[in-house]
Please model this.
Amino acid sequence: MLTLELGKSKNIPLYQQIYQYIKQEVLTHRLKAGSRLPSKRALAAQLGISTITVENAYGQLMSEGYIYAKLKSGYYVSALENLAPPAPMASAVSKTAQCISSPKGTGIDLSSNSILPQSFPFSIWSRLLRRTMAEKQSLLLTKSPTAGILPLRQAIASHLMSFRGMPVSPAQIIVGAGTEYLYELLIKLIGRDKLYCVEDPGYQKLQHIYRDNGACCISLPIDHKGISVSALGSVACDVLHISPSHHFPTGIITPVSRRYELLAWAASEQRYIIEDDYDTEFRLVGKPIPSLFSIDMSSKVIYMNTFSKSLASTIRISYMVLPQPLLEEFNRRFNYLSSTVSTFEQYTLASFIEQGYFERHINRMRNSYKKLRQLLLRALTSHPEHNRIEILQQASGLYFLLKIHTRLPDAALEDRLRQNGIHLQALQHFYQNRQAAPKHTFVVNYSSITPNDIQKVTDALFKSLK
Ligand SMILES: Cc1ncc(COP(=O)(O)O)c(C=O)c1O
Model:
């Protein structure tokens, strides 16, 4: 029996209090490795709180490796030597997020979404910026509407029409400084009292964003078609956050039958789906897949995309498309907020899109990434020891999965690879439920390497397997 007492008046959310307590018990060996924790329902009843709160705490403990789940059996304490390094609790930045955002010193980085300087259209951008400053001086110094300047929203709307076949009114588009900021706005708009569900595996920052903004968030397993509908049916989810056209990091595409099941789920009651279309521009194989937003008849899908991948992750400009009822509420409640993107960048980006440079840039980058990908795959699969590896999810975009036939634990292999000059992340870092993660599988993110790096990558990889 756990003997914790919750301080309901403390400023610390209840799930964090449970998390801290159990973590402490594990670290001090009061809870022994292998011992069974109370079920979520039993602990919730004992503490007089909701099972979702316990679920959040258990989810956090699982993601950090303090406990693990056994199918149809319950939750158990992990052996301490198997623990992942603890994440900083206040903003709980995941290992993944740290890897993505921090410089890694020397070596070739196959773990980040950054791009090379030669990939950014600097000369066109600076020309457009100079022209904007010469011709739009009074507009540049006029306050932007909350949702962004109209020319940028018009340009995004026409891009969505031509690129994604989405007939969207510019009035539905909200521009903001990165998707993280837009998620925060959405939490305010839809409510902190709702249960937000994200994909497992998935973009690890999401759980932290939802939880740090005071909302309950749990992850649900995906199967080969995307989010599992049976898992969805087993929780009282209000808002489902998914990437159906190009799942990150597995590249899985949710087929149309599953999409309609998800839309039917959302159509009833006060439910929403957040469709994260990240990286969709760089799906390099196969036909474009219609967005969930474009087949939604019930105004329940919120579409999200970012210029982080299509231009640069440091540009910090993203947008969301709101369905009509949410848009009306947004305008009613939030038009006092200032736009988080500078007018200088907004007008420059608007010209970049309007004048066709964005489309040309994407086409150029797709071609160059396609070639790079082919070269990298060819180098890996034609290596004399190629039978020690397997390439999975060939159809995904600027990353693919690499399965390595080895007995080495993933962390040891990551270390060896790092010593040999490459930074590669195991797929398990993208899982909340580490026990469910396929072993010896790595996410190869190749957007920041050049063809000249390929030989080094293959040499270092196979050397690390010796
Ligand atoms: C699925 C997904 N969505 C969104 C983002 C980032 O968006 P932004 O840079 O606009 O915050 C990432 C970044 O890795 C991602 O993996």
Q: What stands out?
A: DSSP finds 17 helices and 16 strands in the chain. The radius of gyration is 23 Å. Residues 113, 178-180, 203, 243, 248, 276, 278, 306, 308, 313, 318 surround pyridoxal-5'-phosphate (CB under 6 Å).
